[in-house]
Amino acid sequence: MRRFLFVIFGLVGLGILLSLGTWQVRRLAWKEAVLSEIETRIAAAPVALPVTLNPEADRYLPVQITGELLEGEIHVLVSLKRVGAGYRVIAPMATGDRVILVDRGFIDLEDKDTPRTLGEAAVTGNLHWPQEIDSYTPDPGFDANIWFARDVDMLSAALGTEPVLVIARSKTDPAIMPLPVSTTGIPNDHLQYVITWYGLALVWASMMTFFFWRTRAAKTS
């Protein structure tokens, strides 16, 4: 009876671990499809800036705008792998009768106060409404003009623009390195979970096999 209960317990546990691994396989396929769709959208041919925008429907939409880069940039502190700390330069841009935000790209820390190219410009990039703020994000240092996240509503209020952000993938200044939108920052840990759950299932099955072998060996000795 005890052996029968152990078999039931072991099979139930193995089934749970295998089902969790299988569920993560499905989640991995779903996430890879989502990332592929986003990458296709990012790389599409740019269009004119739509009159009305929806932060969900128009996220990553490629656009091409012409107008005038204005004074009053904001610096968002970031760190790049193999490069180090620096700032994203967020600037207002007048295009037609609208003023929007443009993420011009990355500058080194020592270039924070270096004058940037302003005036007429053509910018190709992608619309984005980044979600970078959590409970640990410090408030902006308004006096030093150092921000720690790109909150489009706060940026637009500070610079007097529409809450619309275009992240440039074309150069707007020789000294600014564009940081185009990509899927790099979108987490996809499902493969790790697949390996974890199936690995645990393998360990569980090995323990069951060892137990039955020991039990059978004890009976025959």
Automatic annotation (TrEMBL):
InterPro entries, per database record: Surf1/Shy1, Surf1/Surf4
Assigned protein family: Belongs to the SURF1 family.
Location (main, coarse): membrane
Localization annotation: Cell membrane; Membrane
Regions that span the bilayer: 195-213
Membrane topology: Multi-pass membrane protein
Organism: Aliisedimentitalea scapharcae
Keywords: Cell membrane, Membrane, Transmembrane, Transmembrane helix
Alphabetical list of PROSITE patterns matching this protein: SURF1
Taxonomy, superkingdom: Bacteria
Stated name of the protein: SURF1-like protein
